[in-house]
Queue: 2 jobs
Job 1
Amino acid sequence: MTNKTVLHAKHLESNAKMVDFYGWEMPINYGSQIEEHHAVRQNAGMFDVSHMTIVDVQGADAKEFLRYLVINDVAKLTVAGKALYTGMLNEEAGVIDDLIIYFFSDTDYRLVVNSATREKDLAWMNKQSAGFDITITERPEYGMIAVQGPQAKAKVANLLNDAETAAVDGMKPFFGVQVGDLFIATTGYTGEDGYEIIVPDSAAEEFWQKLLDQGVVPCGLGARDTLRLEAGMNLYGLDMDESVSPLAANMAWTISWEPEDRDFIGRAALTAQKEAGDQPKLVGLVLEEKGVLRTGQKIITELGEGPLFEGIITSGTFSPTLEHSVALARVPRSVKVGDTVEVEMRKKLVKVTVTKPSFVRNGKKVF
Amino acid sequence: MSNIPSELKYVTSHEWVRVESDGIVTVGITEHAQGLLGDMVFVELPDVGDAITTGDDVAVAESVKAASDIYAPVSGEVVEINEELEDSPELVNSDAFGDGWLFKVKLDDASELESLLDAEGYANSIDED
């Protein structure tokens, strides 16, 4: 069965090339993914992300439940609207999914999880909720539009009424606010300024059209991938999955080790991994000559021969902003930023430079 | 349905061949193929003077999405390459049958052209994809 988002007809109107994305028929591009990429880096672009799963967690034990469910500590959230990026682990410390949690009150949170992992996420949350006084409610009646780029906020501002304008005025990064029909958040997956806006299905097409009329460029999953990769943001299923520890996926910063008495799922396994110090790590790779680094390519280091000393590209692409290829790669922990390693590409070995796993932020090179 | 000019010859691996004068042919990839590959970022061409044999992988079209081998549709000697593609690989996307041509070949055996597909044959082959 193929799912269609509420904006499906709008994509066809804009001549989108549609592809299957984990059971959703989604736009891959509207002609040129490179032009869409540049629109986001230089002006404003928008993505239909209505396929993503919105889950509200509410009830007397909502805070305690989430403190147990995810590796970051929602007790750190004290200002209404503040958001947190984190991961949900299994007992073996493998990543079930990455997600954003918005805090409204100790009894009211909103989670946004990946669409590809929707069923297992919901099943896991429901299973873990036994004994907690909470409700877990999926919200499929909403569409979601990410408007991103240096001009994104200004263009959205032209569409907002007085109450909405007041609500987003001065809103810091990683906050969300419900105002009237709209939930407006300063989050994104591109490394640019902008909003992610949750809008009722009944109003989604009109809102999309108004953004088009403002000159916001519709962008597909192709540009979304090159943008997030330049920004060094993980894609679930490629850069991590249930067999990968957050320590090996550049997600250590999303773990709250303190307070020590907070029990969260996967804590024991994660602590053992940390003490052993033997997890690989996620780094960036830069190839300045011709060629494109691709997912699954093997990395050979000078540390020695054999699987222990090798790495793998978890996601690679051509960077339209930098005009050369970049990649995220999982490598042995002793590989350092600045090192040169070799990648097996199309039957030959090519030298690449190791960087931090982040390449472009706010339109600028950052490595 | 993408454009398939009737004056060209084709192979099922999505290369096209235009017969020029004096036993020279121009080779490119079809509009259908560039559509499948998406935005082109590098095109690796053979060298002028290379002897190529039908079916050899002689060039690579690398798009944002994937790297794809390009096969020699005929045998002969490469006599010219499209140097514009070095700086403007997107010509393969914008004008696959024109400015996005890849290389020219002096045929070893002109009768080889008879075994290539015509536009209708190529259209049928894509329908089967």
Job 2
Amino acid sequence: MMIWHLYKKDMQSYFSSPLAYVLIGLFSLISGIIFFNLLVTYSDGIQALPANYSQDISFLEEVVLRLFANINFLFLFFIPLITMKLFSDEKRQSTLDLYWMAPVREWQVVMAKGLSALSLVLSMLLMTIIFPIIIYGVGVKNFSTLGAAYLALALNASAYISLGLFCSSLSENQIISGLLSILSIMFMWMITWGGNLNSNYLVAEIFVYLGITSHFERVLKGLMGTQDIVYYASFIFSMCFLTVKSLGRRNW
Amino acid sequence: MDKILVVDNVSREYPGRLAVSSASFHVVQGSIHGFLGPNGAGKSTTMRMIAGLLPVTQGEITLFGEKMRPDHFALKNKVGLLPENPPLYLDMTVRDYLSYVASIHKVEKVKERTDFVIEQLSLKDVTHRLVGNLSKGFRQRVGLAQAIIYDAPFLILDEPTNGLDPQSVVELREFIKKLSKEKTILFSSHILSEVEQLCDHITIIHQGKIRASGNLHEIHQKFRQGLVLKIGLSVGEQLPDLSKFGKYQSTHHSGGHEEHFHVVFEDDKDCRKDLSRFLVSEGKGLLTIQVESPELEDIFLRMTEKQS
């Protein structure tokens, strides 16, 4: 019940300002442009190839998976914009004292803020539902791939949000929190790239496991395994745990 | 009288700085207790420790007979805090904000309680306005409303009248007086006349240390430097030699229909009865004779300057 009160307040806060509407609008616009470009590139590619080879280009891989990978890239900027104010702003305005004067635990505040940010991201993703409808219209009826792609985005968004929450709990300055979130997400991507470049098999495997990209790609392709579930769950839990500890720092 | 709050030998250390050092004082039930000190004296830190927002480095704070800790939620619900900067959500309406605070404090009848507090603090006209669009005076009232909405029996008000216009100050003071009929209040302010007007007990803190604490009258007595008398004689008369009553110093001011003499005896003994008889026997026209207490401001300045 307490989490519900906190969640409801955060949702009201998002939608009482233009921020949520601007983000949803901008996100829909950019992802629409990306989808349109991918469709045009795909149809140009098909037309350029001799008729015998045209089946070699998979619509799912060239359009659907690329679209969702690009949306994941958009998260690099959109999610820090959402999470950067969550704790920074409250710290600056001393409103966190309201919670600490009430019977509210740190983890409840972290959960509520995380869930409200995820709800906003999911409502942004809801706007992209038009793409599967168009894809269905052109005759691609592979719903399991589309479901897996949305699941991959939702998992990545949850991981980025948990990271953003932690960054936001570190500073009173929203800009610093936002930049820190962007750099941290980029770092999570670069770990995988580092693994791919490393010649030592064991080190490379560890890097690939620690980076988020390999897990995202597996889930995106519908190959989600136990290691991916464990990875996302432990990543999100660790970030939330660190955020709780960071909020508890006021007691040091 | 019951001690609601006991601060016992409490210290609070920040890295490289001792903000509060071995502070001890108590607050009795039903009183408005003034908490005085210059900027940076440790008032807000002490108040935050009492409210359970900061743990103590050393010592113990007991509230309603229970030890205060930042994780003692039931006890924290018995404390209402209005910090120097009220914790307000500027993007919420007054009603939504107060309902929200009531909800997180698990108030049973949120709507009824919110209506009651809005009525009490005369916030009816601004109830649907955004907190961010309110004047400083109204924001302070909303801040006070959030402190009382869960009906905490002990209130901590950190400079509640700071920066308000005279009209708002008077209204807020009246409201605090009204509140004190049901609640115990720890109240900090820079305006010493305000403290004298509102409080029956005070504590003076300076450089993290408690310099004086207790009943306002007792403190006045304690810091009285000997017996200070104001004597009024008929126009043109002079004060005779009073050395038979002890060592003294006097100053003379002529004014209006009487001669004023400000006499300070080194000895604290009240000799007004004998002195008035003596003056009359000397043929003086004795018009007034009264004991003068030192102003709270004098005591405060003496306490804070002595140590600086």
